[in-house]
Structure to design on (1480 residues):
């Protein structure tokens, strides 16, 4: 009998969690099928409807019901960011394992509280950094680990979308200061999670944040000042001695789900773009002179765990399937594996610290050490 | 209470069906969750193990158990091709709906028998042509239907993989004459299904089939003659007046899951490659002079039914998710929708006829009319 | 003192020849600067104006003046195709070397006459197949010669542009039967020249030719029937045992200067597209499993003779510079080099034979042997 | 009779100038053919040899000979950077027009002196910023000017090559402090010239410079400390209100001639990469919903002055041909045109100021205003 699952939130990422919980045992032969016990959402009606749609046993308007249910062993948190800390700490304290969507929390204090609870209570507590689960990202790590591109000395990270790019769209909560720094906490955590997995820690940063549009149309027919920043960018240095640049922009017309990496080493380099998530480009000076060039690798059975999804190469995984891989890693972690490929609350807090240091640098107009 | 499902076969495509049946109700809010009643495979042991893994109620070594089970309303056939006809006809005669993997059958007689049974018994009977379910292919159809590229006058279709490309690999059943023509029936049905959906019927064809390797290493240490063709190619004309070329190659080093379309019309053109399945390229002469060029469209919420999977654009669907879409279309067809986007046995038989006419042309060295 | 040069024709390709003659000695350090003696065009006025513009000593309305001028050692023929034979034979008979634009002639008889004259008179006589001069095509040949992709077993050749793609454009001489077969002789010679250099001879062919538009607007306000074919396609076999497809289309909206090659071998493959003429894609099974993919090579100093133009890699050569390379090869051939990389009248006639055999096949609706 | 030309320096860029002077009148019909009067290089022997190779009337070991020659009206300076100022000022004072390679000079003082001389003496004095001459860059400017992407609010500039990427290569003068800042002055001027043309002035900058390799093998068998920086990166703000990032790296394995632009506006965006210099990518929100995507434009006759080189689209210009365009613009400027598309010493000095401000910021670890 598999673990009992509770899911809080059934919107964008909640559905993604539900799909992962539903599919994980079909995809991974060693996984015992989880039981989808209960789903919580804002109202009982919505929760019941979504429980039915997603195949959960029951729905509830109160997430604390899940925390209190002994049939539930692990809780997926896909609720609005400001509730993450309270939910995660309560779940951990009730002895549940926690799978929490990123960003971890809306303040460093909350994130620290979550990390402390995870440490104290010894349960598995991970964050939903699904992009690290891409077989091509794992391949990138293997390429670096096997020293195929030598010592990494320069890194560029970009994440861009265009959902805030239209200046004629009405002001909504995403532009309120209360919702956070803007692109910095919306996006930066993603490339930073990749950096964490592929390279290591940032030690210092200098940053700038910008508003492409100072104001937006308001509901009352007038305009309203935009309170946070749709663009952020930072120069950084890493513990391992590399220099780098981080760029995020949620008002970048034409970009839909771009997360672009450029990683340069002493013997080669690696390129990746999430918009072509099934490809990785590698340049190696081991190739003969005159025959060196970026090699476009297509995801296939040699790239773990692609084979579990499709036995033929080049057929393509999707964004949602990264969550299925993540779910399997979570289950490995819960079952005690030391090699589970996850970002736990410990490492998640490090990522949050970089985000906040970046914001401080943008405010102070100077370098900030971490 | 959703429909009862039986699955025959739990290999490559069987797993793909299982994932689709598991996920379809989570993805599509209007779908009642199907009940995974039973799974059949070659032996009871394998079937029981796979039933457990895939979440089916029971496993059986005899597919006729599924046909006889009144709790099963629809049967997925993902068994070896030579059994399709017998299984499909038996299922239809037992009043089940049928979802059968392609190719339809290994002979035109069998395919005709299947079509006749579907006609006679009035059940929903469709084929697993999942590539037509790609939102970008549907977008291509919409672009053509809306006359954005004008009258289509020329089409090029390619499907290439490299799983037979290594001449040092041992002879196995795929190279036996008994397994079929080779690349022609392995591959050609896929681009032909896209042609059927996007353009219409082929009326005449002249073809050639080739063996890149005349023999292969045999198990006994000697060599064995290859009996069918890893490469096939044909020139064709269509009912709508277009000329075209069909090319398939299962020994094409470097190609992993390429299904490439080039569709030229009197006002523009469309390009597609399954290896980048989330992209479609469109050239339109409606764009201003000097600003005309191929536009790379990334799959997103405007492209039905992408939105059901992910609310954000450019995040990427995977190969397996096409099967989920297909499953939903099947359910729409079963519930009586006239607009279900499927290839039924009627149209499937047309595709088989083209395959066999192509083979005849390669043998007769002349044009063959359809 | 360098060779004396005469140029017949100062349009599109005439200008391209003039640029090559002007630049060749600056680019290639071993080349003695040619003397631009005289230019001939349709009228004396035009010829004098163009001679001044292109830096030739004098202009003449009679191309026979060039043939008669003892100061001229080599004659560039960039006049309309129907005059090639007469001009080339006269020039050869006058003891000149000849550099003639392709296609060689408008009939097989004329082409044979040209070949015979070149044989008989022992002068250097080459055709302007500039695409073979691309360093990336030479690289492709080296890759094949060094057995990096093994034995070539399948080839696809495409050449497409869109200058005849607009059905609303008026009928003009390009659509007259007298101008030739259409796309077949406009385009096919280019990919066939590449095939000749990279692989070898075609031995049999089956073809189809198509008209995307049966008629076009005429000057008188009515319409006029199109007399030749904007689309041609053929299946072929080669002496070396490969199968292949040739596709040409001059009404392919969106294609501007596409000449695409796909060459598959027993150990790898090569892709090329003239629209990205500074790139070559190579797939090699010598790369480790899991790290195999198409490598995009950018033209640079290792790729002869790129270094003569630019010492830094990846900066890009242009179409016109291929003619400069060709000019240098012509000069090498004239000076007696056996290794000059050119298509002489002998090999040019072979290409013409393929074109005419293809046309015959399209008419007879059957395979034609060469 | 055209202008008399003197050329100082016959290496990489000297040859490029020679080709431009040789070809410009053939390409551009309105240009009077320049007379290649004399070439100067380090020794008389080298100069005479190169004069012969490049078609100049004579060679000299003393560049002042050119300055003194009344038959020379314009002087190309392609000598080492530290001599630019002395040569340019002397030439201007002798009444010559000056075409000087970039970077302008090795110190801000020298660059200022050059600018002052150009102002004072009223001759045409331009810098060899050839990348701005690319028809696709001009197209980008037209797209911005025509408000097709709206108000530009974010810009990313990258220039990367790999000629310093190999850590096993011996220390040579490029790594000496005396040679300059490193990548910053080697590369940054190029993307900054594009920024100047496409957008406008930078007003503030914060920067970092990095050494991928602290030391390199020395000729004596030991190692030697690297004295400047192969990597530089900066955040910036512009007068027009945009934010941006500048990144340059001359040790970026795999990059050969990358100059990548990303320009985001309120209605669309533009992408460019010099490694595919005949392409421009444009995203426009004027396209219909569901049909928006980056359009890849291929250089062709609508993109001035492509048509002067080749009448057919998509055939491709090369790096050297940008210099021919620049030469024509220089001649237009000399003949008094106000619309010549050049970077004169005035604007060149602005670019130098940004370079030096960037270096100061990297040293002071803070923002620097311009």
């Amino acid at each position: 009998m598999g673990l009992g699952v509770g899911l809080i939130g059934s919107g964008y990422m909640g559905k993604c969690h539900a799909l992962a919980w539903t599919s994980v045992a079909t995809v991974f032969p060693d996984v015992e099928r989880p039981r989808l016990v209960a789903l919580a959402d804002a109202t009982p009606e919505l929760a019941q409807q979504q429980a039915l749609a997603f195949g959960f046993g029951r729905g509830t308007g109160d997430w604390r019901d899940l925390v209190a249910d002994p049939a539930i062993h692990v809780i997926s948190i896909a609720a609005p960011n400001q509730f993450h800390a309270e939910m995660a700490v309560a779940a951990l304290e009730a002895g549940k394992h926690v799978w929490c969507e990123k960003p971890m929390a809306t303040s460093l204090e909350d994130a620290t509280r979550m990390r402390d609870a995870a440490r104290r209570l010894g349960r598995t507590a991970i964050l939903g950094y699904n992009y690290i689960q891409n077989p091509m990202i794992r391949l990138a790590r293997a390429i670096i680990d096997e020293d195929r591109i030598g010592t990494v000395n320069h890194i560029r990270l970009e994440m861009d979308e265009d959902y805030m790019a239209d200046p004629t769209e009405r002001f909504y909560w995403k532009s309120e200061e209360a919702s956070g720094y803007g692109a910095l906490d919306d996006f930066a955590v993603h490339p930073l999670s990749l950096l964490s997995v592929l390279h290591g820690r940032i030690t210092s940063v200098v940053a700038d944040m910008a508003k492409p549009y100072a104001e937006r149309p308001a509901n009352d027919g007038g305009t309203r000042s935009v309170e946070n920043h749709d663009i952020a960018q930072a120069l950084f240095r890493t513990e391992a001695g590399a220099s780098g640049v981080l760029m995020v922009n949620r008002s970048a017309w034409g970009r839909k789900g771009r997360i672009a990496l450029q990683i340069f080493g002493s013997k080669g380099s690696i390129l990746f773009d999430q918009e072509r998530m099934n490809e990785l480009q590698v340049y190696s000076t081991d190739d003969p002179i005159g025959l060196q060039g970026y090699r476009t690798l297509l995801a296939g059975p040699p790239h773990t765990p692609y084979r579990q999804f499709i036995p033929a190469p080049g057929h393509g995984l999707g964004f949602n399937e990264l969550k299925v891989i993540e779910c399997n890693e979570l289950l490995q972690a819960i079952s005690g594996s030391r090699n589970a490929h996850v970002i736990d609350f410990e490492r998640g807090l490090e990522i949050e610290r970089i985000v906040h240091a970046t914001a401080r640098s943008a405010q102070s107009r100077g370098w900030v050490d971490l």
